[in-house]
Fold this sequence. Notes:
Elements: H1 2-12, E1 16-25, E2 31-41, E3 47-48, H2 50-60, H3 63-83, E4 90-94, H4 97-101, H5 105-116, E5 123-128, H6 129-133, H7 136-148, E6 152-158, H8 165-170, E7 175-178, H9 180-184, H10 190-206, E8 209-212, H11 218-226, E9 231-232, H12 243-253
Parallel strand pairs: 2-4, 4-5, 5-6, 6-7, 7-8, 8-9
Antiparallel strand pairs: 1-2, 1-9, 2-3
Helix pairs in contact: 1-2, 3-5
Amino acid sequence: VRMMHALRSGFQRGELFLAYQPQVDLATNAAFGAEALLRWRTEDGRLIGPDRFIPIAEYSGLIVDIGEWVLRQALAELVRLHAAGHCTFTMSVNVSQVQFRHPHFVDMLRRALDDTRAPPEYVELEITESMAMEEPALLVEKLAQVKRTGVSIAIDDFGTGFSSLSHLQRLQVDRLKIDRTFVTEITGSARGSSIAEMVIQLGRNLGLSVIAEGVEDERQAHILRSLGCPLAQGFLFSRPLTPEALVEWLGNQG
Ligand code: G
Ligand code: G
Ligand code: MN
Ligand code: NA
């Protein structure tokens, strides 16, 4: 309860900010986009990660306002990046299930796109695999509405849930994100690499884009390339960056 109050006042005081982690094409290592990641710098200077405060934001309902702020912030950054000459850059934004289920979610998305003048075709929303498995009929319809705004959809943490093939086919998703745990296991156990391999294969068979997350070293990148994984993000390429550092990092990429 104390953290909930601290989060509410911290949010109002502007203590939340976004970090942007570049996403790259594995064939060339060139960045094509970034994922916006939420951070909380508290009054006393501590940095708190989303894993700790998103559940509280969801439980308290604060996530609806925070999520709208995150979306608008990320869309505004996308517009700045395009204006700075990175005109095909994409922006991925995480969406909580509480936020997504809110009856006004699609209206909120449309207004945010209109107000910021962000081009929807360069915007991706990330929903988790556990969300993608729930309430099939409602979800299919809502995703269809979201897709009509022009944004694309990625399934985050893919491989941790149990999406059936037929269910996945009914959802209008565009991309699967291989969960970091399967990337970590790729150099070790055969089973770890087989899950990553399965997701890459699944993406190919269903005509979906695939991105590996949490890529930390060259060995992992090499194996992913050999498995035919097209895209990646992780510390090997870059940590999440401030907007200024992202622009500088993109400049240094040449
Ligand atoms: O990189 P990081 O440790 O910040 O991410 C931890 C988790 O928090 C990830 O699962 C990520 O998807 C989630 N996350 C990061 N930013 C946001 C956000 O803006 N909204 C929501 N709902 N989840 C986020
Ligand atoms: O949305 P998602 O849960 O996938 O968020 C990605 C999380 O993983 C964020 O917390 C981000 O900071 C973190 N992350 C990004 N790249 C790496 C990496 O290479 N290694 C590890 N351990 N974490 C990473
Ligand atoms: Mn994510
Ligand atoms: Na993830």
